[in-house]
Each structure stands twice: as C-alpha cells, then as structure tokens.
C-alpha cells in the first residue's frame, strides 16, 4: 500500500500566466492581423490607454516579441515563393534580376551555415582529478574553481 494521496498524483501548478485573454487578443490583432494598437485594443475590448499601458509592460513586450518571431518565421516560405514569382515574370526585368540575386544569396547562406548548437554562456566544470596536463591550443583558457579552494579562505 502506498502513502500517496490524490493530491500527490496531480501535477504541480505552474506560475499563473500573466497574459490575460484581452492581452493575448491585443497581440493577435497587432501581429497576425496587422492592426494598429488602437484598432487592436478596440477589438480586444480594451481602452486605448490600457493598450498603451500594456505596451510598457516587459512581460507583454516579451510575449509580443515571441509572437512577432513566430509571425516572421511563418512568412519566410511565402517570401521565397514570391521571389520566384518575381523572377519568372517578364514585365519588370530589374525586379526579376534582383529576385534572382536574392534567391541565390539565400541558397548560398543555407549551404554555408550549418546549424549549430553552440550557444554563448555555457559553463563547463572540470574536476581537477580528470584534468590533463597537456598544453592547450592557442586562445584556450581553463579557469579552475574547486569547492576545496573556497573552504580554505
């Protein structure tokens, strides 16, 4: 028999979402439908002043920026199709040449930059017991910190 109660089986609640449905509607109106702040506020059921106050909130701005990034990413495939349409048309030959250049640049960038999982700010902790005594390559540094060092101070 176990000592678990029904409460122990429930997942822990995350912190409450600070984005209210009206704030989400405001972001959706501005990002996905291209509305101005005042128009999106009216559709979200907010006053213009409240919408401006939301725009000053760091949490709201972070959510807005995330939604903008999603919007931009969702538009990229269509942009490539539009460039191909411009390339294939015969009325504006300058636009066709420019579209070809952009498409070629995009192809070169995709080929030249393999995806990377390297991110700045990662700390690697190496225990002294496993540290090799071989010299490091040029520009490499190892900074050692050990809990034993901190105890001696």
Would you write up a description of this structure?
With 153 residues, the protein is mainly alpha-helical. It is flat, with a radius of gyration of 27 Å. The two termini are 50 Å apart. The protein has helices at 6-9, 21-31, 37-44, 48-56, 58-88, 93-112, 147-152. The longest helix is centred in the middle third of the chain and has 31 residues, at 58-88. Helices cover 58% and strands 0% of the residues. The mean pLDDT is 78. Helix 3 crosses helix 4.
What is shown here, in short?
With 153 residues, this protein is mainly alpha-helical.
Radius of gyration: 27 Å
User: What is the helix content?
Assistant: 55-70%
Order of helices and strands: HHHHHHH
Instruction: Bin the strand percentage.
Output: under 5%
The major β-sheet equals: none
Taking all residues together, what is the mean pLDDT? 78
Number of strands: 0
Poorly predicted runs of 5 or more residues: none
> Distance between the terminal alpha carbons, to the nearest Å?
50 Å
